Amino acid sequence: GASAFVSALADEAEGPALCLVCGEVVQAGKRPRPGHPGACAVHARHAHADGIGVFFLVLKCATLLVADSMAAYGPSIYVDEYGEEDRDLRRGAPLRLAHDRLRALERIYNDHGIRAEIA
Question: What is the model's pTM?
Fold first, then answer.
């Protein structure tokens, strides 16, 4: 089952996605055709031989975890002064990098736990 770290992935256009592994920006969103991987999955497969990717979705202000053809949203690594997320940047509150969340995401990635987080 999925942990509290992830939620179901919606099939909608997401805008730019920053790969937190290598720093490249790709266009996240719908798969080009049913049964074909989206840009984040393609990037993870080609840039990172293991097919694992961790992306920051700029317009959603959320993370995206990718493992082969599976993907799931994770929490934002940016929070407001009260430690709350501003999903989809709806409130427009000033945000800061949440170092603890970034470290937790790094631990999951470094411990090869992305697949388990998505499953």
Answer: 0.83
